[in-house]
Amino acid sequence: MSVKDKLEIYLRLARMDRPIGTLLLMWPCLMALVLAAGGMPDLKVLVIFIIGVVVMRACGCIINDYADRKLDSHVERTKSRPLASGEISVKEALTLFVVMGLIAFGLVLMLNPLVVQLSFVGIILTIIYPFTKRFTNMPQMFLGVVWSWSIPMAYAAQTGTVPAEAWWLFAANWCWTVAYDTMYAMVDRDDDLKVGIKSTAILFGKYDRQVIALFQLAALACFIIAGWAADRGLVYALGIITFVGFSLYQQKLIYGRERAPCFKAFLNNNWAGLSLFVALGVDYLV
User: Is the distance from CB of 144 to CB of 178 less than 8 angstroms?
Assistant: First the structure.
């Protein structure tokens, strides 16, 4: 196998070919940096966090595929993943995970001690998450914590503290993550039931759409409170309205619980996050 082919496999293992997860992780992290800075964050901190999001998302994907390597081959959407298909060995995957983890830790060491302390919690959460699907019906709720951990880290990096405002944004992103990852789980629900993987899509059952709507509403409320705490204005409010519009569109897509529209609804959350982040940034500018 050529070096080019091996590199292509590594990139697929780290999901570099599918940036949706990186983007969904990026928008709340950037919002946290902007809110913490009261506008434009420190350039060094901004660059470190952008690179860190990419690297840590890759770490999460690698350890997830390691944990699910014997199950992914039975799921239509995941059977072609490098570990599930045998394109890469377990040893190679774990080596790549360690390398990426060391890169992430090296980035954190350029920041203050509080961020370093929070980073240890972050990596532990990242490692634990993939295995939660074995013993709880609520892995999406655990993922919400993992996916939101960059928020207190961003505040700590920018200000040296983690104020109450940060936890409102944390709560907003937690609720939003549970909502969109349940949409994602709806795509695989039939396969997951066969192989024994647990999810909120299975837990919520016939009330899945209603519970997703409740989490969307809770996320909306917390985003509003976070903006109010930071004294944000009209443009941010327009971003909130746009977020509501995307949420309603996603509800329409998941109405029939069909795989393709549910996956489309999940992907649509990227635009919801982007619009809210842009609105926040423009709100500070004007």
Answer: yes
